[in-house]
């Protein structure tokens, strides 16, 4: 009788310990998911701070007015650009035919005055009527109509 009671208590303790470890594993997984979200948000805020710092410190020289801007299709997300960096549609980047890689460019929508500061990381667009290809995020930030594929913009290059 004493052996069966001891065995019962031992089994109960093992069961309790294993259930607590699975709870702590679930909590760790939740914490990890939250930290990923927090770090992503922190990175986005840092990008915005950098962009606002550049716009306040940098002087921009108008490169072209009434230029036609479009945006990258989703199929290019994750592919390598001409400069060698990995393309991400959620960053503020652009493609231009002639401007050097790494050039900071202020692209202003002529209809509403909104602007974004992007970095040239690729070559293109390969359509004669278009001057610059923006990442989807940059395009949507300045677009009036989110369903449109193109905009009339003013392109200004940051001068040192």
Written overview of the protein:
With 160 residues, the protein is α/β, with parallel strands linked by helices. It is built from two helices and six strands; from the N terminus they run H-E-E-E-E-E-H-E. It has a six-stranded mixed β-barrel with strand order 1-5-2-4-3-6. The protein is rod-shaped, with a radius of gyration of 26 Å. The mean pLDDT is 81.
Number of strands: 6
Radius of gyration: 26 Å
Task: State the major sheet.
Answer: 6 strands, mixed, barrel
Mean pLDDT value: 81
Order of helical and strand elements = HEEEEEHE
Shape: rod-shaped
Query: N- to C-terminal separation?
Result: 88 Å
Strand order of the largest sheet: 1-5-2-4-3-6
Low-confidence stretches: none
Quote the beta fraction.
25-35%
Total DSSP helices: 2
Helix proportion: 25-40%
Which characteristics define this entry?
single chain, 160 residues, alpha/beta, six-stranded mixed β-barrel, 39% helix
Q: Secondary-structure blueprint of this entry?
A:
Layout (H helix, E strand, L loop, with lengths): L1 H56 L1 E13 L21 E4 L7 E6 L5 E8 L9 E3 L1 H7 L7 E10 L1
Parallel strand pairs: 1-5, 2-4
Antiparallel strand pairs: 1-6, 2-5, 3-4, 3-6
Compact description:
The chain contains two helices and six strands; from the N terminus they run αβββββαβ. The protein is α/β, with parallel strands linked by helices.
């Amino acid at each position: 009788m004493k052996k069966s009671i001891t065995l019962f208590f031992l089994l109960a303790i093992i069961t309790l310990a294993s259930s607590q470890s699975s709870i702590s594993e679930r909590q760790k997984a939740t914490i990890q998911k939250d930290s990923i979200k927090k770090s992503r948000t922190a990175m986005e805020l840092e990008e915005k701070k950098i962009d606002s710092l550049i716009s306040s410190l940098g002087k921009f020289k108008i490169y072209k007015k009434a230029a036609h801007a479009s945006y990258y299709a989703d199929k290019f997300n994750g592919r390598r650009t001409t400069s060698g960096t990995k393309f991400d549609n959620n960053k503020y980047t652009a493609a231009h035919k002639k401007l050097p890689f790494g050039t900071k460019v202020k692209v202003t929508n002529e209809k509403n005055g909104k602007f974004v500061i992007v970095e040239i990381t690729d070559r293109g667009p390969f359509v004669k009527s278009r001057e610059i290809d923006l990442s989807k995020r940059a395009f949507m930030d300045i677009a009036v109509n989110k369903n449109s594929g193109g905009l009339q913009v003013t392109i200004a290059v940051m001068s040192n």
